[in-house]
Request: fold
Amino acid sequence: MALGEKSISSPLSAIKNLFKKPVTVRYPNEELEVYSEKGVSERFRGVHSNDMAKCIGCGSCERICPVNAIVMTLPEGSEDTRKQYRPKIDYGRCCFCAFCVDVCPTVSLKMSKEYDFTSAAPMKLRDGEEVKFVMDEFNYLPTDKYDDNPGYVTGKKKKVLG
Amino acid sequence: MNFDSYTLTKIAKNDKYTTYDLFFGPNHPGMNGNFGYVLDMVGTEINNVRINAGQLHRGFEKLMERRGWVQNLTLVPRICVMDPDPNEVTYCMAVEKIMNVEIPERAKYLRTITLEMSRLTSLLISIGGAGASLGLYTIMHWTMADRDKVLDMFEWLTGGRVYHIYNIPGGVRRDTPKGFLEKLYETMEYLESRLPDYDSLLFENPIIHKRLKGLGPVTKEEARKTGLSGPNLRASGNALDIRKDAPYAAYSELEFDIITQEEGDAFARALQMRLEYEQAIDLIKQAIKKMPEGDVHANLGNLGMLKVNPGEAYAKVESSKGEFGYYIVSKGEKKPYRVSVRGPSLPAGFLWATKHLPKMKIDDVAVWMGTFGICAPDFDK
Reply:
């Protein structure tokens, strides 16, 4: 195929785009319509959700995590046995690779389509308090809060990482 | 210094700021990535160039020695953000070579598709960047909008838009979602329908021809001697392509020819990117049509606890910028003993910069970098 030099007016063919609809959408009033549902894809890797009843506290997710974002912690009000520990995720470190989801033996840990991390911060905070506030905001113990909006979920039959 | 050879006005000759050092680094909008050249300028012409690398050094190779075999997969795509999949595939291929594992047929095709989609996203940035560095921002807006269509497909297949982390030793992580391949085929047809617009705006534009023809020429022999690879090598007339010479994934089952140019200048390199873009679309279409059914990953046991038997291997992949290679040494532990990465941008970014940039106008540096496809993280990893 030859792509030779053509008339100086050939770039003017771009003018036809003046009458096209824009490719961008006005988020949050509109959402992208690429997939069967509006918004992000069905495999989107967003904020985790964890079925507290199914989770056995094995710590596989903690071991596979490449960035040490997961720490097994004891939720308030539960007795101190190994099976009661649940993953707590630091979203300041999480890289959303979803290896923790792939490795989960009971398929209790999932990822949802939630991607909005913003939260209102109190205006009057001292330096040290602000750091602690942000750390608490980013450290999140996943519950079934986002279970109705599932994203990246590995089925039990299709083991990926064993 | 003989000032007559330089483009100086009479006033500038008497100016005490005639010669100066210009830092052409990350602060410059024409620079690709966090990397810099210190240019000794005379007027608007470059007299000498000093390379200023090291601003992007993140120590990937050393970091990989401290993480498990699978954990490293989150690290490798970050070596080249524009073209992340060759890193994943090359790393996995090297691990599979040491373990002596054959991956399923369907996984091979899925790897081919992700590699070519990644090539498309990278070439779209390069083509747009070539236009933008000449002040033609329309093409940049178009290519970025079209790149988003490919990223949407990546999001559907893998869950991530930029860092896909889709390949694992033994195959790929997940099978395609329902309706994905049909939608991907539609997207490829859309991208193909956009090509006449790109051509009329950029590749058939007389101004682009005038600016790029004769800029930064590389002869056939020099290209081989200096270790150029990929589109830059083929733009100088060398018909060498790893996809043909040492086939990996499913390339041996797809039909394609090696595209070459003769001139070896900046225009030939830009045209080469454009033609390889078209070829990548065709390869994805072929792979979709020939895709077999079956498993997508071989059973290697618990990959979280993976131990690779002692050995060493080098695997290479034809990325959008050239040969990406991983040399991995294993001592039979849970972590690699040594990983060495070969990035394709080093000969162009270091060696050809010292050859081409002297006597070049400052206006041409950005587009010279753009046509070479220099990706700073490749050599500053």
In short: Chain B has a mean pLDDT of 87.
